[in-house]
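SEVERITY: medium
COMPONENT: batch folding queue
REPORTER: lab tech (J.R.)

DESCRIPTION
The queue accepted two submissions in a row. Attaching both inputs and their returned structure tokens so the on-call engineer can compare them side by side.

ATTACHMENT 1
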Amino acid sequence: MTATCWRPELIFRGSVRRASIALCALAFAACPNRAPAADQVEEFAAFQYYRLALSALERGDLEKAESRLAKVTSFASDWAQGGSMLGFVRECLGRPGPAAEAYQKALAADPRNAFAWHSLRKLGAPLPGDTAPTGDAKTWETYRAGLVLLTQQQVDEGIRTVFEAARAAPDWLEIRNTLAYLYEMHRTQGDAVREVQAVLDLAPQDLYARQALAQLRPDEAARQRSTAPTDGLKYPQWAGDETNAQFERQLFALVNEERRKRGLNELLPDETLTKIAREHAAEMREKGFFAHESPTPGRREPLDRYMLYETRKPQTIAENVARRWGSRPSLNESNIRGTHADLMQSSHHRANILREGLTHLGIGVASNGQGDFWVTEVFAKPR
């Protein structure tokens, strides 16, 4: 699940997972009396820069991804996964020479690195003569296609394609690690934990998997319901307005339950806020974006959308948005509860849900035929 929240004085972008990464990094640096060994510090730095590089890659910012991956290889020159991803990004930037150099360094670190081996062959660069890759060319092509989709900001299709590659080659660690990252950023910690644990079962010293598992807090993640696609997955049909309205009411009740527990006033349903929330959720689905800012002129911010229907500005307005990518099935009571739980785990989203002075709430849920759904919660105190 990915989520963002909006308040008049602050726009918070990212996900619950990214926030936890920042906290973990701070905690790691805040223990001067228990300094880790130098190689542990370098591994941790390589891991963090690698994740930042993947984040830049997803945004299509390949220059930034390259600079971050160069940092990765400086901290962990013997980590083939970092070098092979650097080669891929340089290829995307139209730099075949530097790409081949990165792939060759990856193969020097791990002569059986399949991604680097097949990529070098594609470039027509010299290949090591005494080794063979651990992965086949067809799986390499599928995985590479998934990465290309991510650079084009087609995240859902990219995840599906990387998943297909992982299913075809479950022992290809680099693919499983990439899938773990994507699940963490766009799905649940439980999905990500399952992937990194599978990698560690095959390679207990894998750099990415060890660092990721330490940050994912598996004791907490294990309690989350896994929603990863599996063999035989059948997506439900689009749920329709009445089913979506049912889940809107469920989320509304969950918000008021949280407020009631803390002695706060329960929020009242509001027709205008509900209309705004439904329209924004549907627009995110139809136009393929996930943000508080709408690309439609006149609807950019939550306040803009509010003023389309009201003549006076509210005293307070706030917004949470969330999404879940196709699961088994995605739009069901369990996943709606999971979405609410994820929002409550983020301080910014929780602050909106528990904000004092609010009086009204509107919630919109939109879904599609692949089991994906989008949620918008609009909180306000009208004048």
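ATTACHMENT 2
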Amino acid sequence: MASSKEKILDAAEREFAELGIAGASLRGITKSAGVNLGSIYYYFESKEDLIMQVLQRRIDQFRRKGLIEFEEFKKKVKSPTNRDYWLMMVKAMLRFRSRHPQYVAFISNLFSTRKDVVEKALGKNEDFLQNEYLKEIKKSLPERVWLEAEKRVTTIMLMIHMLLLNKHMAGIYLEKKRVFKDQDDFAEEIANIASASMDALAKGC
């Protein structure tokens, strides 16, 4: 049975997704959660604290699930290429996105109105997939280009996060006149772009 805090987090994510960040009220969230208003102030200091905890909960879930998938990938794929790593990461993000559509709507609303909150949350949570990937590519790159590799991976990961939030923007950014057939098609395109950037860096060493 879900705790009062979990009920509030679920309701908050739903309300923020459907009504927007400004449109969702604490009173409306408590009504949706089936708890009293005092419960919100027991678990959360403010509306912004609630927003941060909704965001943090999903980040933690993705980290746990993604780490398991990453370890399974390394066992399954022998001698993975640069592109294999990127494809695995993008597909993991897409699967999480599909499982939690309300979270995607919530973070899209949040990014459009409170970009600072998203950046604050991401700043507190280094992307574990990014870090695991960096560990792997560092094995094949000279030490003198590690800093540049890290910068490129960070930039590409940010691009991927943004494109996953908005398919229309993805089409414009990637200059594609066609509609992506499915998630795998989209993942393949992103993996091609990301791996090409890292391959170019490796060739320039």
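NOTES FROM REPORTER
The chain has eleven helices and no strands.
No errors were logged for either attachment.
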